[in-house]
Specification:
single chain; Hypothetical Protein Ta1238, Chain: A; about 65% helix; mainly alpha; about 160 residues
């Protein structure tokens, strides 16, 4: 039976399993994004994908994410925000294939944050740095998507909410 299992934890009742599946999904999406990117941007996305896999094991095992990883994401976020000047408005998640894929990663990042909260409500210790990192993944993915549209000469479409 061991060879037939894709993951030994799948039959647990804990929300940790769902968190691990979501971080795997996020890492896979970021890996796909990297396949669409070039040069330093590609390398950056591959590095961030590796960090997400470190996040994956940081609740069940030893915390492998620290403040330097959050600072790295924040610095890249701020760089793209300064470059694009689009960080203060809502945009429609569209554009180049890379930008659209990064918008999907942004959403997965939010799901990861939500699932970590649910894991914490089960009484599992979830370090604050993990929440900071997962939130920054989502924020970074937004700015990286806007950057991807910029380098592909795709204009952003602003979203003006009628609800707020």
């Amino acid at each position: 039976m061991r060879n037939e299992l894709c993951c030994p934890f799948l039959y647990e009742e804990s929300k940790k399993v769902e968190f691990e599946i979501l971080t795997d999904k996020l890492a896979s999406q970021l890996g796909f994004c990297a396949s669409l990117a070039k040069g330093n941007f590609k390398n950056e996305l591959i590095f961030i994908t590796e960090l997400v896999y470190h996040l994956n094991g940081s609740i069940r095992g030893k915390t492998a994410i620290d403040g330097s990883h959050v600072s790295f994401l924040k610095a890249r976020y701020e760089f793209y925000e300064g470059e694009t000047k689009d960080g203060t408005r809502l945009v429609i998640p569209q554009g180049s294939p890379l930008a659209s894929s990064l918008h999907v990663a942004r959403c997965f990042g939010k799901e990861v944050v939500r699932k970590m909260y649910q894991v914490k409500t089960e009484g599992v210790i979830v370090e604050d740095v993990l929440f900071d990192f997962a939130n920054m993944i989502s924020n970074y993915s937004l700015m990286a998507a806007i950057h991807a549209n910029k380098i592909n000469n795709v204009s952003e479409k602003e979203f003006n909410s009628k609800s707020y």
